[in-house]
Amino acid sequence: MKQHSTEAKTAADTDRDSLMHLLGGRASAVDASVPPVVFGLAWLLAGESIVVGGAAAVAAGIAIGAVRLHKGARPRAVLISLLGVMLGAVIALRTGDAADFYLVRVVSNAASALVWMTSIALRWPFLGLVVGTLLGQRARWRRDPALRSAYNRASWVWVGQYVTRLLVFIPLWAVDAVVALGIAQVVLTWPLVAVCVVSSWWVLRRSLPADHPGVRRPRVAENAT
């Protein structure tokens, strides 16, 4: 009995680590925070020059993209990330307000929160879509009522992540706190993602029945919709 309990715990830990890797990879989260930090530092050191800050951020984004591609990252993901940095720089240059460089982050987090809440309302929780796809399950997890319900509850943790960022970013953006926005970007990237992944995993496991085999083995109900 003790051996079975140990094996179950090991399997749970493995699944939790897999979820961390699939949804909250440390490298990608850290990389995402570099260009905004570089922008804030370059802007400050160059006498509050948006041109210098934007150029430095784009250069950092290109360097990170090159490293990601070398390590086998998908070109599309690298391009989207770089375009986000470039768009932030262009917006700041057009408005003449350095804080607007971070406006893309505000909008993307608001959009992400909306997408996740909509997926929950439609009973297609985004967490289940992402994990199910990455595990090669397609939509089989939806035919497991207990697993679908667990994904629904755990998805609210991710909504909370995006809302938390908005509650910090919007007031700082409103008062043009450029340096503070750069610092917030660091604190609310990898550390917050790590907390979110661990918390959503805990909610997911707690929401499943004690005898459920776990996220890798959905119990398919024939008549489930």
Q: Termini separation (Å)?
A: 36 Å
Contiguous runs where pLDDT drops below 50 for at least 5 residues: 1-8
Tally of individual helices: 9
Name the helix and strand elements from N-terminus to C-terminus, one letter apiece. HHHHHHHHH
The percent of residues in helical segments reads over 70%
- Content-based structural category: mainly alpha
What's the alpha carbon Rg, rounded to whole Å?
20 Å
What is the molecular shape?
elongated
The mean pLDDT is 86
Strand content range: under 5%
Count all strands and give the number.
0
Largest sheet geometry: none
Can you characterise this structure?
The chain is mainly alpha-helical and about 220 residues long. It is about 75% helix and about 0% strand. It is elongated. The protein starts with a helix and ends in an 18-residue tail after the last helix.
Summarize the structure.
With 225 residues, the protein is mainly alpha-helical. The chain is 76% helix and 0% strand.
Topology:
Elements: H1 2-23, H2 26-45, H3 50-70, H4 75-95, H5 103-121, H6 126-134, H7 145-174, H8 178-187, H9 190-207
Helix pairs in contact: 1-9, 2-3, 2-8, 3-4, 5-7, 7-8, 7-9
